[in-house]
TrEMBL record:
SUPFAM superfamilies: Acyl-CoA N-acyltransferases (Nat). Keywords: Acyltransferase, Transferase. It is an enzyme of class 2 (transferase). PANTHER family: PROTEIN NATD1 (PTHR31435:SF9). Residues 9-96 form the N-acetyltransferase domain. One of its GO terms (molecular function) is acyltransferase activity. Gene3D superfamilies: 3.40.630.30. It holds the Pfam family Acetyltransf_CG. Its EC number is 2.3.1.-. This is GNAT family N-acetyltransferase.
Length: 96
């Protein structure tokens, strides 16, 4: 896989994880909103230019790692994130 760097951005009760792929201007995003102390993963967006490289999976992994480190729970509202949680039962500790 090509190098992917994930950065996290927070603005009050919302935020996003942004995937920067080496040698590409396109970025992938996982957008979340916090409600009732739970961060709901609302949308995972990966443009075709960087698709098929595991970018969406890396975004979800970053959110799971962040949840463990910062003690919050994830509500998988996005269908991709919901499917990822089904594939990874070891993430149950952070699923809302």
């Amino acid at each position: 896989m090509v190098g992917v760097t994930i950065t996290a951005h927070e603005n009050g009760n919302s935020g996003e994880y942004v995937a920067h792929v080496a040698d590409h201007d396109a970025t992938g995003r996982l957008i979340w909103e916090e409600r009732g102390g739970i961060r709901y993963a609302e949308h995972t967006l990966v443009p075709p230019a960087i698709g098929g490289r595991g970018v969406a999976g890396r975004l979800v992994e970053a959110m799971v790692a962040d949840a463990r480190e910062n003690h919050f729970r994830i509500g998988p509202s996005c269908s991709y994130v919901a499917a990822a949680f089904k594939r990874h039962p070891e993430w149950a500790d952070v699923k809302a």
